[in-house]
Amino acid sequence: MLRTTLRTATQSASTGRRAYSSIKPVYTAHATSTGGRQGKTSAPEAGIPELTLGTPKGLGGKDDHSKSNPEALFASTYSACFIGAMGLAAGQLKAKLPPTVTAMADVSIGSPTDNSGGFKIAATLRIPFDSLEGSGLDRSGAEELLKKAHELCPYSRATRGNIEVDIKLE
């Protein structure tokens, strides 16, 4: 066992990639950021060009909508990932997820209410019921779909127990 672990660690070190003990990766995304909130980020291998980042007005930055920020990027990726999990859940529930399904994510950053210092984030995912038209699900079935998707979604799993996440069927 130790020999395997050392071999894996050595192979990983030589390729610059990490070996994980909790998953067998089928895809790994690579992104590079420089300069923090006032810098740039990109993921060229995934078709994401260099994005200019800026601090949001609420955190003392300018009201510059030409720049993105970590919270906006997280909201975008979480909502997209959640739709993927909804598709998986729909299959398990013998429902059909329509191509018009929509998920909107609101990611907030602020001071922890326990006064522990620093910042925390919280997220709300909002799914319009009418975007599920054609799925064959009534409102109760749609609620079950969202519950199941929240159990399956990799982002939901990563955030579970770490940040507050609300899922709302509107």
From TrEMBL:
This is Organic hydroperoxide resistance protein. Residues 30-67 are annotated as: Disordered. Belongs to the OsmC/Ohr family. The gene is Mo00589. Residues 30-41 have a biased composition (Polar residues). GO terms for biological process: response to oxidative stress. InterPro entries: KH_dom-like_a/b (IPR015946), OHR (IPR019953), OsmC/Ohr_fam (IPR003718), OsmC/Ohrsf (IPR036102). Gene3D superfamilies: 2.20.25.10, 3.30.300.20.
